[in-house]
Amino acid sequence: MTWQTGRLDTNLASEFREVMSSVATPVSVVTTMGGGGQPFGTTVSAFASLSMMPPMVLVALDQGSDLLDQVRRSGVFGLNVLAVGVALGAAAAARRGRLAGLHGRRACRRR
Q: Could you give all domains of the chain from N- to C-terminal order, each with its CATH number?
């Protein structure tokens, strides 16, 4: 993994993975409502705050993500930053598809 040769340097890739695995990031779940009122979601670590006024965040989702398709259809999503020790919700959200058994409340309304 090097920009100089364009070829994969496995040692550098391994070191990069090790360093990045120790970077503290909050566990977050991106959610949206699909057709029929079914919740969809996935865990993410790639998000950032962009603006306080208006409040905006950036979330990175894979192009082939089912959730991305649902977000595009609904036009809205929620970013849920989980408290320490809330691994059960994150594990459920990490599974592909609908979020069965998770309940929540709407905190913000779309304007």
A: 24-111 (2.30.110.10)
